[in-house]
Amino acid sequence: MKKLLAGLALAAGLLAPAAWAQDAASAPAAAVAATATAAVDAASAPAATPPAEAAPAAAAAPAPAPNKGDTSWMMVSTLLVIMMTVPGLALFYGGLVRSKNMLSVLMQVMVGFSLMVVLWVLYGYSFAFTEGNAFIGGTDRLFMKGLWDNAAGTFALGATFSKGTPMYEIVFAGFQATFAGITACLIIGAFAERMKFSAVLAFLTLWFTFSYLPIAHMVWYWMGPDAYSSAEVAAEMTSKAGLIWQWGALDFAGGTVVHINAAVAGLVGAYMVGKRVGYGREQFTPHSLTLTMVGASLLWVGWFGFNAGSALEANGFAALAFFNTLAATAAAVLAWCVGEALLKGKASMLGAASGAVAGLVAITPAAGNVGIGGGLVIGLVAGFACLWGVSGLKKMLGADDSLDVFGVHGIGGIVGALLTGVFNSPNLGGPSAVADWTTVAMVAPEAYSIAGQVWIQAKAVLLTIVWSGVVSVVAYKLVDLTIGLRVTEEEEREGLDISSHGETAYHK
Cα(173)–Cα(274) distance, rounded to whole angstroms? Predict the structure, then answer.
């Protein structure tokens, strides 16, 4: 983060934040964490007075302060994302594996999430959300230094979407920590039931450092709207942003950063760890669809914090993201059930839960970037597309992606990212994108190019796939050479609950 400190012209010494925030039409989930404080010259010339009268002292304009409602909403949203992971994702994944591996999945999710939060505090936040270059941030916030502003005697501030509307940087940092945590845990479903616990943690550490942090920086880091103080500095401010943000890609809450990024890592892991013992010859049925249903429900509820919280304010864009998260997910559930009934003659509970997650994934990059009609279409398309992803595509790929991470998060994330470029169009009911941050003017309907925006979205998707794929191959290989990726065949047959943790989920 680049701190800009300047003394006030007046003795009042008031400070006002220069923003780090996310483009409302782009990726509000990740406003720049580079908190900058700028001088505000609030002095105005005193009115003319008769010579015999002393000129009144000019009153300084008060510095903007964080809104308590916005702060409360962001803290609640952070809690909701934690609930998505522990217990939501843990139960969703846990119910899908065999009973002998239930605790191993719960452990991997809980401990993996905890590991990511600690790494986020140590260096992750700084490398993702401070100024560095187009690919990675700097060291200004290592160990979270600077979140308390000693000079000002208060917590450091950053901006939200709106100019001159600060929030506490510590709140944003905590919110984004939960994103890093759940993203890493999504990968676990691809190699469930066969990977060493220590190998899981080692891989997640490497992948988080070299894939999650750069992708988050490239997609979400920019200098914030207040930095665009004039047309003369606009180009310079944009050049300091992450590469994908400079392209103009729209990612409201993490279609690329979270879902595609994690899905590619999971698919690579499914190949490199290898298939489960007995895969293709034995039945691998979920041991508790009841728990999977509970987990999916917790994911849906928590996702309102994930998406609507990404607005960074309790405003209209948060409400739009909230509504789209509700409607698109419901549409995806129906689409999956219809597709399953047509293909298999029956709609299943597993299908309905999977459809819900597919809709949640697909609407993530679009949540605050498309209108409600566009959100419904995205949900419907995602339901059918992800059903194909876990059936037809999975067979084509030939990988033992245990819990269909790529089929749901990869395909759903790609669908959502591309269709965001379509339905962001004001001609199709979308809010459009910001054309000029100096004036905060939006792209006019006649100037919006769907083809152009979809191409930008496609470039962001392709870069994410290649980056995560290369990092994942190297990380898995390093772990395999040092620790070893898999448990022994005997341990796998016994079940990872006993062999890896000495416990069992169910006592007979």
Answer: 36
**Cβ count near 387 (within 10 Å):** 27
Cβ 434 vs Cβ 224: under 8 Å: no
Report, as ranges of residue numbers, the positions in the chain whose pLDDT lies below 70: 1-60, 508
Amino acid symbol at 208: F
Tokens standing for 111? 């401990």
Q: What pLDDT was estimated at residue 18?
A: 32
Q: Cα 370 vs. chain centroid, distance in angstroms?
A: 17
Distance CA 327, CA 38 (A): 41
Positive or negative: CA dihedral 100, 268, 137, 242: negative
Is 127 buried (19+), middle (13-18) or exposed (0-12) by CB count in 10 A? buried
Give the whole-angstrom CA distance, residue 332 versus residue 366.
Answer: 14
Distances (CA, A) of 15 to 38, 41, 165: 6, 10, 13
Q: What share of the chain is helix, strand, coil (3-state, %, to 5)?
A: 60, 5, 35
Sole residue written with tokens 């994103």: 179
């709207």: which residue's tokens? 225
Token readout for 417 is 């990212």
Distances (CA, A) of 180 to 113, 176, 344, 389: 8, 7, 37, 25
**Is the Cβ–Cβ distance between 254 and 84 less than 8 Å?**
no
What is the identity of the amino acid at 249? Answer: A
Paired tokens of 456: 């930008």
Among the listed residues 340, 338, 385, 341, the one whose alpha carbon sits nearest the alpha carbon of residue 359: 385
* pLDDT value of position 449: 97
pLDDT for 224 equals: 84
Predicted local confidence at residue 505, as pLDDT: 92
Residue 157 in tokens: 């501030």
